[in-house]
Amino acid sequence: KIRVPGSPAGDSVSTRAPATAEEEEVLDERMRMLCRKIDTDATGSISEWDLIEAVRTYPDVADLVVPGAGPSTLMRDGAALDAVGDAFEAIAGGKRRARYWEVAAHFRRAAAQRVANAPALRELWGLIDAEGSGQVSKLKLLRAVRSQPAVARLVLPAAPPGRPRSDEETFEAVKGAFERVAGGKRRFDYGDFEACFGAVQQAAEPVPDRPPDRRPSKRVLVIGPGFARDPRLGAAVEAAGFQTRWCWEGLPSPEAPDFDPRPHLPAIKAAIDDFEPDALACASAGGAYVAGLWAARLWRGPTVLINAHPSCARLPAG
Q: Positions of the region Disordered (predicted)?
């Protein structure tokens, strides 16, 4: 590392080899001239402070780094200043200084992102300029932010976690965004809008909150015969989180060829009446009991059939 003349104490730049031919390829003459304008010390690299000063001084640099935010806007808009910091972080990738070709590569990627964003940006513009006048005022932008979540995600900074943004905070945020886009004008058009937001990575739709788990409040009566062959099935039922009751007592295995479940149905019906389940569950041969309950019209509620018994091949009518 070597000390960079004229830079803050401790600032340094790598003495690594010059950029490769592939790296230099992204650096066209226009970008080289802009980088030299930013790099006032002519070190061949740019610091975050260099970038901030250049954005404040040169409108063409400001338009490249923070589209729609001129130097005057940057001086009074904290969000625009933060955007410069974010841009430098993206350029330098954690380093304190960025070389010219890294700056050029970043803005080439931003240009590609701008092209990729075009359809989505047009759709968002349609939500803002719903009547198709081609012009957006501060009030129109505020209304769109309040009524269209997709517009709000694009225009507004993220609200603090767990605290909704107040009406006043929303207004101030929209006001700042409007000033960045309009650049001092009373209204902005699609060109202004695209210049400001065209390279912004579109926020994804928020993932809806997971619905509450209602299983602990649901009761399942498990008809025991049929689970004995594979104890893992019973363990899975128990682990599912429902309130469960097992109905075993007095119920023989229904695997005999001529098994008649009817004499045993009153015991199961008594368990149903006592437990008042939301669902019945049975496995394999235990399905013979469920078929008997269906035939006798003793149960018409939700039923879970695991490895369904042949007698359960058809659901009961009605």
A: 1-24
Q: For residues 224 and 220, what is the distance between their CA atoms, to the nearest angstrom?
A: 12
Please give the structure tokens belonging to residue 252.
Answer: 């023989």
11 in any annotated domain: no
Rounded to an integer, what distance in angstroms lies between the CA atom of residue 173 and that of residue 188? 17
Task: Please give the Cα distance from 261 to 253 (Å, whole number).
Answer: 10
Structure tokens, 205: 């739709």
Do 67 and 177 share a domain, yes or no? yes
Burial degree of 127 (CB within 10 A; 0-12, 13-18, 19+): middle
| Same-domain pairing of 33 and 147 | yes
Give the domain range for residue 42.
21-197
Provide the pLDDT for residue 55.
Answer: 85
Instruction: Please report which confidence band the pLDDT of residue 264 belongs to, taking 50, 70 and 90 as the band edges.
Output: very high
Question: Do 126 and 275 fall into the same domain?
Answer: no
Q: Identify whether residues 188 and 308 lie together within a single domain.
A: no
Q: Which residue has the higher pLDDT, 303 or 8?
A: 303
